[in-house]
Give the backbone structure.
Amino acid sequence: MTGSTDLGLPLASAPRRRPAAVLATLAALAVFALLLAVSIGTAGPGPGAVWRELLAGSDPLVEALVLDLRLPRALNAFGAGAALALAGVCMQVLLRNPLADPYVLGVSGGAAVAALGAMLLGLGMLAVQVGAIGGALAATLLVFTLARGSDLGAGAWTPSRLLLTGVVLAAGFGALVSLLLALGDATQLRGMLFWLMGDLSFAGAPWALLGVALLAVPLGLAFARPLNVLSRGELQAELLGVPTRALRIGLYVAASVLTAVTVTSVGTIGFVGLVTPHLVRLALGADHRWVIPAAALAGGTLVVVADLLARTAFAPRMLPVGALTALVGVPLFLALMRRTRAAG
């Protein structure tokens, strides 16, 4: 028996393909993308020579190139994509709307405003990171507060009200970002613009970002069944005993932290959290026991490939990763919307 959730996608009981096979394929693609990313670059020997020298251990320069430069950048890209995809899954379940995304709802805007403010004040990287997380959480609190208003009833935080409030706040944060860029030092403008569009050139050690993304997967799996119920409707979830208010707040906080950590590490990269959950649900259905790990793998692979193209397509010039993900994400999302409308 088939049906659809409030997201307009197949129910968890009717996956379109064998989940284990899809996960194995995504894992293989992720490994291949990472190997490709550490093998290809604008400097140094070709892919075959890189691996020969690396396995032989005869050239310390090749080892430094791969282990100190390419591998950390590739792992940062994978962690960023996985975190953004998981944040998108959280937001779409929370609002039961396929258009929900941390960038649409102002979470990333709040993180970007706080991080840019710390940069303009000349504060250190730690202050920038703390500011971004605080900005994302403050944006989350502001969305909830404004969406609730003076209505203290059980239905105060409706999905449509949260979505509309988030979209308005995202526009406001975008205006603040433009104002900060206009007030900033002209010598820093190019770097800040690239950071706002997603730039992995100056990303540091990947372990924090990668660790947060990997930790989010088992935590999400632990709540997979309540997420499945919530995605079918809040009333049904409450009738089945799911603590909907606590779960919704937890989802918003989780999406905020995932987005803020990504913004501080690699800047703002759009459309990953919007498109990746769609593709995963089309392949697997809406069972979050499969959607969560599949989204992390697919999102990480997407950003790794986008970053590889960003640094090699027009070498020696670097392209912003966020621009490439948008160029891929916009037509893909329009095609998915057209397909969903035709199916409906």
